[in-house]
Specification:
17 strands, elongated, Beta-Lactamase, Heat Shock Protein 90, 17 helices, alpha/beta, 5-stranded antiparallel beta sheet, Helix Hairpins
């Protein structure tokens, strides 16, 4: 058998060969090759490091024994706010709060015990700056040649911004669903309210009522007004309610609300105005913005049962790209700012994140609908603005509302129309309405102001009545969506008989439903139910006098 030491590949044989070359020959023959191999190794290491550093996710390695960091890429440095030099050799307990560190350690041990890939859908890590970031993490053990787990490799993707976008999408979907519900019931509910409000106002002008009876009628009117306001609010936050915007100085609106709140907010709450000295010109529906401020103020009062400080201020804000990027909402531009701050009980992060959800409330059962803040959110959105909230338990809450400023030159072109007392008349009006109670009310309102009314119960009946009375009818007041023939179909036939007859459409449906059914002529006059009797009378007189 051949001796192993004589094998040409044995260490002894190699040493004998090297001894025969001499020092110079060894250096000249083998050193350049060694240098080349080392250079290739360095290039390979740099190449791999470059790849890992450019992965758009945090890549880290911990030793299996003590779970100390032994490697971290650049994305990890950027995310955590620590350099590699600061982090390597440390454990999670050295850099994050104990609760988070315990969670990370538990998951790391689970990975090493299971011996395979573990995916963690969400981990929250506190960065060096104190910010919480949400991570989606994959962890896997790394084994040596003997099959022993020596290290644990982790790849963490920052999904914080994605989570916020998902939450905003969910919020929008919830509001859209409630908006669809509101739009669906608005028609019938507005018809009912119109009857209650109409007869209530007619009763309030009855001189035969004594003081006690008149007080009860006023309570009926007040309750129906609140119900109508709630319906409008529901439609507003779903962006299905038409606004009547006017150019105003926002400081004037806030001042009016402040006067109102001073009477109702309670003596134990100190109400402090902080108006800006600038003229904050905005185009808004003042009534809706007033509703926003009243909702926020009453919520603030409820958060301060033992009293406190409520501050309502205004200001000017330039929103730039960095603001939009940091907050994830808004558009760049100049905004008028309203801030509503209280020193009440405040909210934790979980409550704050849900504050604008429909039907979410922290109040006791029976003490709130959970719609107030959703309505606030919708009104602000409908004004092309945005709202945010800052709150800490035991310290208080601040809401900030941003409404776009308008150019002063454009504001000067706007004119404010003051409502005038309604006038009566003696003209004949055809009223087409499929709701019998609304038809009866409308007829009574118009006849009480001198008009002659011809009632019709649907679109087909309206056409037949017009054929009979075409020479005397000066105006048609017609519901848009009715049985047999809708308003548009009925009016099309009527115009063939008299092309000059005037019409006012009415509807309790939301505008988007009306438009989707294509039942409204372009440019036609439209009043939305529940319409106040005085508003109806003004509109009728306006059209009749427009000859």
């Amino acid at each position: 058998m051949k001796n192993h030491s004589d094998s040409p590949d044995s260490l002894d044989a190699l040493q004998k060969k090297l001894a025969g070359f001499g020092e110079f020959s060894v250096r000249k023959t083998y050193y350049p090759e060694l240098q080349q191999r080392l250079e290739e190794l360095r290039e390979s290491e740099a190449f791999l490091k470059n790849i890992v550093d450019n992965i758009p996710a945090m890549v880290f390695v911990k030793d299996a024994a003590e779970l100390r960091y032994v490697a971290l890429n650049k994305a990890g440095e950027d995310l955590l706010g620590y350099s590699r030099e600061e982090l390597l050799g440390k454990t999670d307990r050295d850099i994050v709060p104990e609760e988070q560190a315990a969670f990370f350690t538990g998951k790391d041990r689970e990975v090493l015990t299971r011996g395979n890939l573990v995916e963690i859908p969400e981990e929250t890590v506190k960065t060096r700056s104190g910010e919480d970031r949400i991570l989606r993490v994959k962890k896997i053990p790394l084994y040596d040649s003997e099959g022993t787990a020596r290290y644990m490799l982790g790849i963490a993707e920052d999904i914080t911004d994605r989570k916020h976008l998902e939450e905003q999408l969910l919020q929008s979907q919830k509001m859209e669903a409630i908006g669809q519900l509101a739009g669906g019931v608005a028609h019938d509910f507005n018809n009912i309210l119109m009857v209650i409000m109409g007869y209530g106002q007619m009763l309030s002008r009855d001189l035969a009522l004594d003081a006690h009876q008149k007080e009860k009628v006023e309570l009926i009117i007040e309750a129906s007004d609140k119900a109508a306001l709630l319906t409008r609010g529901l439609l507003t936050f779903s962006r299905k309610q038409e606004m009547t915007p006017r150019v105003v100085n926002l400081n004037d609106v806030v001042q009016q609300v402040h006067k109102f709140l001073a009477r109702i907010i309670g003596e134990d709450v100190q109400l402090t105005p902080k108006p800006d000295t600038s003229e904050l010109l905005v185009k808004i529906d003042s009534g809706q913005i007033e509703q926003v401020l009243i909702n926020l103020a009453t919520n603030a009062r409820d958060a301060m049962p033992k009293g406190g400080l409520l501050t309502i201020g205004t200001g000017l804000m330039d929103v730039d790209a960095s603001f939009v990027q940091a907050n994830g909402y808004g558009k760049t531009g100049r905004y008028a700012l309203i801030s509503v701050s209280d020193t009440g009980s405040g909210m934790d992060e979980k409550t704050r994140s849900r504050i604008f959800e429909p039907f979410f409330t922290t109040k006791e059962v029976g003490k709130g609908t959970g719609l107030g803040m959703s309505i606030v959110y919708g009104i602000v959105k409908q004004h092309h603005g945005f709202i945010n909230v800052y709150s800490e338990p035991g310290i208080g809450t601040t809401f900030r509302i941003y409404i776009p400023l308008i150019d002063k030159g454009l504001a000067e072109d706007e004119s404010v129309v003051m409502p005038t007392p309604p006038k009566g008349g003696s003209e004949t009006i055809l009223v087409a309405e499929d709701d019998a109670a609304v038809l009866m009310l409308t007829e009574e309102i118009l006849t009480s102001f001198g008009y002659l009314v011809i009632p019709a119960e649907d679109g087909e009946d309206a056409v037949e009545k017009f054929k009979v009375h075409r020479d005397t009818i000066k105006l048609i007041l017609m519901d848009i969506i009715m049985p047999k023939k809708n308003g548009k179909e009925a009016y099309r036939e009527i115009r063939q008989l008299d092309a000059d007859v005037k019409i006012i459409y009415s509807s309790g449906y939301t505008l988007d439903i009306i438009q989707s059914r294509d039942v409204l002529d372009e440019g036609a006059e439209l009043i939305m139910k529940p319409v106040q009797p005085l508003e109806l009378l003004r509109k009728v007189r306006e059209l009749l006098d427009g000859e």
